[in-house]
Amino acid sequence: GQLSDLRLVTVLDLSHNRFTTLPEDIRHLTNLQELNLSHNELKKLPEGVSHLGTLRVLDCAHNKLHSLPESLGQLTALMCLDVRHNAGLRQLPPALAQIPSLQQMLVDGQLSDLRLVTVLDLSHNRFTTLPEDIRHLTNLQELNLSHNELKKLPEGVSHLGTLRVLDCAHNKLHSLPESLGQLTALMCLDVRHNAGLRQLPPALAQIPSLQQMLVDGQ
């Protein structure tokens, strides 16, 4: 399709179209702020996407992406990137970690490239474990792990010193690590709907910032 006539468009929704490719002249949409490419059959993104200097939201969920171009690091206005449900996507370009505005990265797996991310939503993924390298997300403020199949949390979570919200609801947790008491910035902890969770670490009571604890019974 001829896209270069759309230079003034700020929001473009191309979702649910079975697209397998995108034209390189998408680079001409120089005022674009939101681009929704979700629910297509894209195997790669054109380099032209990296020229969208005003882009704030890029939704590539539910495609067939195997990789992302390193040049996405040039999207210096990007605030939200959604790449969930791309079964072949095993890693993210390290350059994404250099985007100062990037606040929300919605992914299925690879975590250690996301050091600057402040909000991470891993909910509804059937995860049974989390990698220990989650400890590297040292700027994380909100972590949503709800609606998975986690039986325990990795100790690495306790190293997230800026974490304010931890949502572990609807999992299979039997216990929480005592080291969660190290989360001195934590304000909200949700552990509802974990049938096997019978008690909470006493150390949680020592967190001065903790204002909201959502539990089923204890």
From TrEMBL:
The keyword Methyltransferase does not apply. Signal peptide: none annotated. PROSITE patterns: LRR (PS51450). Keywords: Leucine-rich repeat, Repeat. It comes from the Eukaryota. Residues 3-105, 110-213 form the Disease resistance R13L4/SHOC-2-like LRR domain. GO terms for cellular component: cytoplasm. It holds the Pfam family LRR_14. This is Disease resistance R13L4/SHOC-2-like LRR domain-containing protein. PANTHER family: PTHR48051, RAS SUPPRESSOR PROTEIN 1. InterPro entries: Leu-rich_rpt, Leu-rich_rpt_typical-subtyp, LRR_dom_sf, LRR_domain-containing, LRR_R13L4/SHOC2-like. The keyword Repeat applies.
